[in-house]
Amino acid sequence: LLIVFPKPSGKTDDPEPSRLTGYPTWHGKIDGNDQQKVDSFATFDSIVLLVGAILTFRWSFVEKLPKNNDYKIIHSKTIPFRFISLYCLATFVAVVASIAFDVGKLWGVFGALHNLMEVAILLLIGQNGKIKGVSFSLLWGAYYLIINTVCLFTNFPIDAVFFKVQGLAVDFALVIEFTRVFINTKKNLNEQAELQLPLNTDENRDGDNDAFAVRHPRQWLLMISAAVVHLLGNIFNTMAPNDGKTNLVFQLSYAITFLLYLLYVYFDTHTISVHGPKRFYLPETPGAKTAVLAI
Asked: Most buried of 82, 149, 190, 250, CB within 10 angstroms?
């Protein structure tokens, strides 16, 4: 961001107007821009996102969740299934809004929904799986309010930079937290094999002989991969925001990211050697550390 904003002369490019509203956007003139390709990629993204939201929502209700009072353990059909469905839906709204309004202040109200769902997933992991607590709702709502307040009351390029910075911060956090969940879950399952579902040795034996089976929690690697692809696409676009090719790569990264999320849900429900909901062990995150990272 320091490389991109501001220019060496201390000036930034004048923002281009939105095609529909004529309002200033959050980008200057894009070199080599092919609007037809941009719209085509965005339409493709929106189709992937809408289908992904429908399928993940449907698959999340296949089986009943076991009751568990240990909030340090979450089951695969709590998060990420239903949250991924909402994540896809929120991103679908953001992509459609970008087609209609282009990326700017007006779009930011819709684009923040995408970040809001990412924050919801981070909060769920950071609060040991508690989604009904008052703090979850307060933090969630406060995040959305702060993003929109800052963006609405500041001028270009501060509003654009702020939105980009918070988006990158959340994307980095997702990669880190997903990796921590995988490492912690694998460690706990190795140390406490008796806690792993299913509780039937015959099912384990059948899963071991299944050529298409994936051992839990290896399917979670798809979650990490999706977060990494999304982060790389965002970084690539940040370093060259006015380059038409990087914008197309960024659009493509959205489709790849959410296809990976969809594949995760499919593998977890159809090809895992352990049938039924899977346990994920959340890493310990002290409150003080969470507060520092959030700031």
From this structure: 250
Instruction: Note whether 214 and 221 are within 8 A (CB).
Output: no
Give the predicted TM-score (pTM) of the model.
Answer: 0.81
Residue 93 tokens read as 């709204």
Give the residues across from 243 on adjacent strands.
31
- Please say if the pLDDT value at position 231 is more than 70: yes
Residue 230 to residues 1, 63, 173, 201, 234, Cα–Cα distance (Å): 17, 30, 12, 38, 6
Topology annotation, domain 35-294: Rhopdopsin 7-helix transmembrane proteins (1.20.1070)
